[in-house]
């Protein structure tokens, strides 16, 4: 039983680490390459004034997931990421720019992270 739990914990950390790299990288691009992101947001018909707040919320969501200070906050962070990625996939598919796979990968990673989080840390 202990070996399975350690294996699940390792899988959780790897998946959540990959997810973190992807989300933190996107947030960094939002901060440090604003003009490029602004053009992308205009293309997918999103308002550009949400770029910085979205980057901040992504970082805060990662902190909520990794610190585990509040189970409710962690649940909201996971939910927020799921909504964000579903909306990103939809927006990219609507404008047919071919950029949806990144959001789809992020969606798979966040769902896998959530599944393994529940498996390792329980549903309490």
Describe this structure in words.
It is elongated, with a radius of gyration of 16 Å. It has 124 residues and is mostly helical. The chain has one domain. The mean pLDDT is 93. It has 5 helices and no strands.
| Separation of the first and last Cα atoms | 19 Å
**Number of continuous helical runs:** 5
Query: In one word, what is the shape?
Result: elongated
Q: Helical content, roughly?
A: over 70%
Structural class: mainly alpha
N-to-C series of helices and strands: HHHHH
Major β-sheet profile: none
Compute the CA-based radius of gyration: 16 Å
Total number of distinct structural domains: 1
Assess the beta-strand content as a share of residues: under 5%
| Arithmetic mean of pLDDT | 93
Short description:
With 124 residues, the chain is mainly α. It has 5 helices and no strands.
List the helices and strands and how they pair.
Elements: H1 2-32, H2 34-43, H3 51-67, H4 71-95, H5 100-121
Helix pairs in contact: 1-3, 1-5, 3-4, 4-5
Quickly list its features.
124 residues, mainly alpha, 0% strand, elongated
């Amino acid at each position: 039983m202990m070996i399975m739990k350690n294996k699940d914990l390792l899988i959780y950390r790897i998946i959540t680490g990959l997810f973190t790299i992807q989300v933190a990288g996107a947030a960094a691009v939002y901060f440090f390459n604003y003009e490029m992101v602004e053009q992308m947001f205009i293309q997918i018909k999103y308002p550009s004034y949400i770029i910085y707040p979205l980057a901040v919320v992504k970082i805060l969501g990662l902190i909520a997931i990794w610190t585990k200070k509040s189970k409710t906050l962690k649940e909201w962070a996971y939910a927020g990421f799921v909504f964000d990625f579903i909306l990103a996939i939809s927006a990219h598919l609507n404008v047919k720019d071919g950029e949806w796979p990144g959001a789809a990968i992020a969606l798979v990673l966040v769902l896998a992270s959530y599944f393994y989080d529940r498996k390792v840390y329980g549903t309490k």
